[in-house]
């Protein structure tokens, strides 16, 4: 891991774009180095991993959850998580609301949209999102706040396709903003772009890029939680 990689990415960020340094499968010692270079927002995709790392690191880190979240794991992160990017169902949002209430917090969340052609990726389609946002049950939620949208493009070298998926996500954002959140200043985030496609994502209006391997190097998926903390 080299400081030049981190600084190159910082320099490439367009104005108004914030960097989420994706530290999944990376040890706390690596996170500490990037923290010492000035980074404050870190992203994790497993609740137990985030919970284990959190007490080992400075308290001014903003922890962003970016992976598929299971309802029974929300409790591990609800007391401290800064932003959940990956709300992919109303049932999950309701559970986050419950756990946030227990921690006496309001947890900022993004709605993940299914923009990729791959079946394996999670997320809302527009009609589902509308059904949720129109419902009385949604209006009852007091401990979550919707700050915007998130999406993952198809894993492909076809830049034209990736760009069109990011354009599609930006359109979902604009639609939700005008129909449901026009007066809400906090509804302003479009989380899109990873190591391979963040330049395209920024050109298409990303406000949060989630970058892991370009900062920390390739991940070793054989590592266990004990190896990381
Ligand atoms: C791992 C991950 C990233 C970062 O991927 P890199 O290609 O390493 O930059 C971004 N977003 C999500 C949801 C991830 O799971």
Structure description:
With 229 residues, this protein is α/β, with parallel strands linked by helices. The protein has a single domain (2-228), classed as Alanine racemase (TIM Barrel, Alpha-Beta Barrel). It has eleven helices and eight strands. The protein has an eight-stranded parallel β-sheet with strand order 7-6-5-4-3-2-1-8. Helix 5 links the parallel strand 4 (83-87) and strand 5. The mean pLDDT is 97. It binds pyridoxal-5'-phosphate. Residues 22, 24, 45, 66-67, 152, 194-196, 210-214 line the site of pyridoxal-5'-phosphate.
Mean pLDDT: 97
3D shape: globular
| Spatial sequence of strands, sheet with the most strands | 7-6-5-4-3-2-1-8
- DSSP summary, beta strand count: 8
The distinct bound ligands, ions and cofactors come out as: pyridoxal-5'-phosphate
CATH superfamily: Alanine racemase
Q: Mind sketching the topology for me?
A:
Layout (H helix, E strand, L loop, with lengths): L2 H10 L5 E5 L5 H9 L4 E4 L2 H7 L8 E4 L8 H4 L5 E5 L2 H13 L4 E7 L12 H9 L1 H4 L4 E8 L7 H22 L8 E3 L6 H6 L4 E4 L1 H4 L8 H4 L1
Parallel strand pairs: 1-2, 1-8, 2-3, 3-4, 4-5, 5-6, 6-7
